[in-house]
Amino acid sequence: MEWEVVIGLETHTQLKTNTKIFSGASIKYGAEPNTQACEVSIALPGVLPVLNKEAVQCAIKFGLAINAHIAPRSVFARKNYFYPDLPKGYQISQFELPVVGKGAVTIQVPAVGKNAAYEKVVNITRAHLEEDAGKSVHGAVEGMSGIDLNRAGTPLLEIVTEPDMRSAAEAVAYAKKLHELVQWIGICDGNMQEGSFRCDVNVSVRPKGTEKLGTRREIKNLNSFKFMTQAIEYETRWQIETLEDGGTIQQATVLFNPDTGETRSMRSKEEANDYRYFPDPDLLPLVISEADKAAVKATMPELPEAMKARFEAQYALSSYDANALTTSRDLANYFVATVDAGADAKQSANWVMGTLAAKLNAADTSITDSPINAQQLAQLLKRIGDNTISNNAAKQVFEALWNAEGSVDDIIAAKGLKQESDSGAIEAIIDEVLAANAAMVEEFKAGKEKAFNALVGQAMKASKGKANPAQVNDILKKKLS
Amino acid sequence: MINSSLKQLGEMLQAKKISSVELTQTFLDRIQQYNPSINAYIALDEGKTLAQAKAADALIAAGNAAPLTGIPIAQKDIFCAKGWQTTCGSKMLANFIAPYDAHIITQFDAAGAVNLGKTNMDEFAMGSSNETSYFGGVKNPWSFDRVPGGSSGGSAAAVAARLCAAATGTDTGGSIRQPASLCGFTGLKPTYGAVSRYGMIAFASSLDQAGPMAKSAEDCALMMNVMAGFDERDSTSLNREKEDYTRDLSKPLQGLKVGLPKEYFSEGLDASVGKVIEAAIAEYKKLGAEIVDISLPNTGLSIPVYYVLAPAEASSNLSRYDGVRYGHRAAEYTDLMDMYNKSRAEGFGAEVKRRILIGTYVLSAGYYDAYYLKAQQIRRLIAQDFVEAFKKCDVIMGPAAPSTAFKAGEKVDDPVAMYLQDIYTISTNLAGLPGMSIPAGFAQSDDGVSLPVGLQIIGNYFDEARMLNVAHQYQQVTDWHERMPELVLPKEVK
Question: Which residues of B touch A (CB under 8 A)?
């Protein structure tokens, strides 16, 4: 039987606010335990929550970015359960009436093997505001568990999709797109190591061609795209094998172990809590007016979709190039800065996405930390454009720029990479080459096209690579015709 | 002096006829004398109290006195006060020293008032007799074998026995008004949202409201001037302009329309209490009030609705008492679950556990719609009853409690009988309306003891100034509010 995997994601996005969602405590990462735990964070008797308006603005931004319905009235609810890092014994979240309703995200699924790349729309069910819990710290004190409440009350936007994804590749493409989008609109720093962007993945399988959803298992807290791929692939195989062996899938929450590459059940449905959700009487319903939305909209950057369309029109880029350049705001900004500094758009796109991206990737560096800035790259591209250097020489200049060996022109001069474009000088070189390679000339005249390339090679070699290859081509053609 | 009004005390202090230290010491001495019998206070700290009195005297000397500067006020032990043991009447918090001040504590401090001590109360404000307190019951100063009412029983006894100049209380279902009725003084539960709940330990968040407990309406007005007002730390606090609650005290009552809900005078009301209320109404007629018959048809549903909603909120509000960060933790336990179970089993009393169980039940999957949601719908109907009633009248009057003070132990094993103590007060909490109880006379008990009876006045939203006016005018022509119990100490304490 052929199986189909069905995947839905719930993503906890930590919002980039100054303070916690219901108190004035700082949310800075990495502080000494419990130094960012005010009386509200500790849930002292008598304290009350006050909603952080910044967090609401983040939610509105996200709703606008995915063209979602933004609820004019949404309600905070208490999710009741006991856990040592949950100081109030309940989490303030949203349940029946979330702030952001249905929306959609368009993803680009990259080519895998012989399957070509394609575009897909993933529907967003909802996104709601909630507070994060604290952290249990085991082993810091011998034989004891400690509680760090610095994180308790950190604002989160939980973004839930429909079960629209059909492969690990689609799930990861969605997660990456979302990761880029929340950073693009400035609501999340995207730092996955620090837990700013965490995904829970619901996986089920069903016979291909059937409608009914299989029983799902939820893989909790994936904090890297690599783990997400591994976890989904393992979980999918496990579910298919279980069913094929005549077993059944029990609804469960599972954890992925990166060391073994396996998922393992944390708790079954029977062990699941009854959270006893009810509207939080300490908080008024969250009311968002059209004017509130308009005010937030005015602060929003151009969205990736719009920028992509603009790049295609303004710079005559292909849809593929425009899409690739708008995967992150920093990348897009770098590209625009390169073009603004006088470089050719198409050439800038090629270099930014090609040589530069490869180099950054190899060095595990982000574009904002690139040793070569947009102005330098533009200068380099201009020197290709005005025939000062060849493409080959440009690669050497690029390497030298990366190593901070000076300005583009200084490097060209120091390395003697300036291209020979004087036709008299090139003609002299070619004459010498033709004289020294009579056999090749004969071969060419006898119809062997390859011999022409060999002669070009000889001429380039004779010029120590400095001759303008286009001129070499032209002159050689003339001489041989 | 102990029977002087807050206004008189303020004038004496500012005229330097007496110092705050002297006044405070007078009350501390009375507390030392009578509190061992009455048990009105849980925590006393003479050092802190007298330091505040000294500071108040300095303010007065510098000419910076406000109306309550230097006046000793008792604080219900539900309010966090920095450096003070703050127990909420529970073993769970018996070891808890609050590291911060509740909003109203800050307000009283800013007004230069003196914190006299923390008063006894039913555990987590759950009770109508003060018998659920971990720190023991409180004696009704009018009859030591009777309860003071609850949950603000300690504040009530302290005001009645003149062990403070005035006190604070909280009222979730009647916890200011019922004890005011049973102990014979003036208590006001303001409109929901008028006084910040920040730092007031939550029982049922959508119903809890702090208010003054004092000898007279005028005293309550002065207390409200300090307590009420917007606080951005409480999202349910209403952002209204600060008002002077004394502004209308002296207005005549000519033409005042008083609504009498027939449901408040039906079965369940003790006949002797009914008589006192009728006499008080007659007095109001003399003052020029016009009596209007009204109906609050859903009154009978208020207790069942309340005992779904209040426990539901309480079950969640009390989840934070888990033994992890503060409060009681069991001495021995095998694992996390065992620690939770033992700490909570040991830390909470029977009534609190009963309400946590009820609340957990009504919020559970499969029961939520039938209980919690249905109760919320009926709550709106109850509020609507009042909207209709206030189209016909300016204030509503009736009894504050169905009987006079009952004997300790009498209802302790019958929760429903205890819950019925709040039959006339709970509706106003559900509707969010202000209500008060004022001394209206005395009724004779079966065993021949004369016990105070309170008249309840319910006003429209934010109509406290008018209610205080209505109460004050009555107190100009009656002296019930000036009556003081004769405190007879048991021999061994003397």
Answer: 79-80, 86, 88, 93, 96, 98-100, 102, 197-202, 204-206, 232-236, 312-313, 315-316, 318-322, 324-326, 336, 340, 360, 363-365, 368, 372
Please indicate whether, in this complex, the C-beta atoms of B236 and A281 are within 8 angstroms of each other: yes
Catalytic-labelled residue, pool B19, B90, B129, B175: B175
A276 and A369 together in one domain: no
CB within 8 Å of B333: residues ≥ 6 apart: B339, B342, B343
Mean pLDDT of A367-392: 92
Same domain, A336 and A208: no
**Is residue A12 located within the same domain as residue A100?**
yes
What is the Cα Rg of chain A in Å? 30
Is A297 within a domain? no
Answer yes or no: are the C-beta atoms of B322 and B340 closer than 8 Å: yes
| Shortest Cα–Cα distance, B202 to chain A (Å) | 6
Predicted confidence (pLDDT) at residue B485 exceeds the cutoff of 70: yes
How many residues are present in chain A? 481
| B99: chain A residues, CB-CB within 8 Å | 39, 44
Residue B494: pLDDT band (50, 70, 90) is very low
Helix, strand, coil shares of chain A, percent, nearest 5, are 40, 20, 40
Both A357 and A430 in one domain: the answer is no
Please determine, for residue B84, whether its predicted confidence score (pLDDT) is greater than 90: yes
Give me the domain span that covers residue A213.
3-292
The tens digit of pLDDT for each residue in B304-353 reads 999 999 999 999 999 999 999 999 999 999 999 999 999 999 999 999 99
**Using one digit for the tens of pLDDT, what is the confidence trace for B227-274?**
999 999 999 999 999 999 999 999 999 999 999 999 999 878 999 999
CB B126 within 8 A of CB A83: no
What is the SS3 assignment for A122? strand
Residue B76 annotated among the catalytic residues of the structure:
yes
Domains and CATH numbers, chain B: 6-256+435-493 (3.90.1300.10)
- Given A292, A315, A330, the domain boundary residue is A292
Which two tokens mark A171?
A: 């799930």
ipTM of predicted assembly, 2 dp: 0.96
Give the gap in angstroms from C-alpha A86 to the nearest C-alpha of chain B: 9
**Is residue A428 situated within a structural domain?**
yes
Whole-number pLDDT of residue B191:
98
Q: Which of B205, B236, B317, B324 is the mutation pick for testing A, counting most A CBs within 10 A?
A: B324
Q: How many domains does chain A have?
A: 3
Same domain, residue pair A225 and A337: no
